[in-house]
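Structural prep section.
Before we set up the soaks we want a predicted structure of the protein with heme C in place, mainly to decide which crystallisation condition to try first. Input record follows.
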Amino acid sequence: MKKIVMLAALVAFIAISAIAFANPTAPTGELKVTEMMKSNKKPPVMFSHAKHAEAVPDCKTCHHTWDGKANPEKCSKCHTGRKSGKKDNMKNTMHKKCKGCHKELKKAGKKHGPTSCKKCHKK
Ligand code: HEC
Ligand code: HEC
Ligand code: HEC
Ligand code: HEC
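Run finished without errors. Recording the tokens verbatim:
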């Protein structure tokens, strides 16, 4: 009897661990990157994780505070934009990160993402 209880506990433990330690998966498809800014002066930016998977294989290139275990947090959790006084504005932060990389790759003559406003801020 005791053995069965122990076994059941072990099975339950393994099942829970499998969920807790499962590798986080990047969302696929188009992702609206809108909640970061508190205003909406521009059309939303559609960000495709899928298209960046090959180009930017290291999640930490963008999720720079990620511990590598649980799902990475939203950028907007920390980059609260204009509301946060001295903290960097989300617009500047994202432009640096996103456009910055695209520009560098373009300069280097490599495959790159858009650098013009309309190609990111699609209607
Ligand atoms: C590589 C993609 C990319 C390009 C190119 C880009 N942006 Fe952005 N922009 C973003 C992201 C991401 C955000 C933050 C998320 C959001 O507000 O939708 C943002 C935010 C903004 C915001 C703040 C939005 C708000 O609601 O207050 C403005 C204004 C803006 N961009 C203007 C521009 C202009 C003007 C250009 C061209 C000179 C440009 N962007 C080019 C990605 C881009
Ligand atoms: C080129 C930049 C970039 C790369 C590389 C990247 N991500 Fe993201 N990821 C983002 C952006 C931007 C968001 C939207 C964040 C927001 O809404 O604040 C996001 C959102 C997410 C979310 C949803 C978070 C939430 O709470 O909604 C998960 C999960 C995630 N990414 C996982 C990953 C994993 C795992 C990898 C590596 C395989 C990865 N990402 C690589 C930029 C990136
Ligand atoms: C847990 C909080 C946290 C999360 C989540 C987070 N950041 Fe940051 N980020 C910071 C802090 C704090 C700084 C300033 C100190 C530093 O450079 O590390 C920063 C700095 C930056 C900078 C440099 C800013 C500059 O002006 O040079 C960029 C770019 C950036 N973050 C982009 C992102 C993106 C993109 C995401 C989401 C994919 C993200 N961050 C998620 C806390 C966070
Ligand atoms: C470290 C480099 C890097 C960073 C950071 C990066 N990108 Fe890109 N991006 C690329 C490359 C390379 C491509 C071309 C991929 C391809 O064509 O397969 C691309 C393509 C794109 C495209 C065109 C493909 C599509 O989805 O239709 C968009 C839009 C885009 N990026 C938006 C963003 C936004 C928004 C961010 C910031 C959240 C970002 N990128 C951050 C390298 C980067």
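Observations: The two ends are 65 Å apart (CA to CA).
Flagged for discussion at group meeting.
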